[in-house]
Amino acid sequence: MNATFINGSAHSGVIIRNSNDLIIKAHAFIHSCLDLISAECLAILDACSILAHLRIKKATFESDCKNAITQINVSSPNNNWSASPIIDKINLLRKNWTSWNFKFVPRSANGAAHSSKWVASNYFVGIVPFNIIPDSIFCDDGYPILDNF
């Protein structure tokens, strides 16, 4: 998953892959938002919401936003942070799915998700049809966006 921040809006793209790196679903979202960190956290929350709806019990969520992943993984997140309410929602969902892991990946390894946010930044919202997904997302770069379920 990845997000971009444009004129007070979070544009995010979520790519869900299975353990064989096959794309299961691609989805784009747009939210009102005040900063990039909140935009990245909203992308993670969107991915969590999709997997909770699909009842996926085991998953690894990868993001290139180190601050967000750190705050999700600590037992006492910083409550003075702008994204704290979003982190709280992620952790509330996470309590129901104990085999969900949240992992930081460098931006260079998050190319597919970075490519996916173009859909949302073009104001496309919803399930992304496979025929408009850029070829770069289908390439196996060794870093699946969501894996192991």
From TrEMBL:
Superkingdom? Eukaryota
What Gene3D superfamilies is this protein classified in?
A: Ribonuclease H-like superfamily/Ribonuclease H (3.30.420.10)
The record, for InterPro entries, names: RNase_H-like_dom_plant, RNase_H-like_EbsB-rel, RNaseH_domain, RNaseH_sf
- Where the record annotates domain RNase H type-1, the positions are 7-115
Q: What is this protein called?
A: RNase H type-1 domain-containing protein
Q: Which organism is it from?
A: Castilleja foliolosa
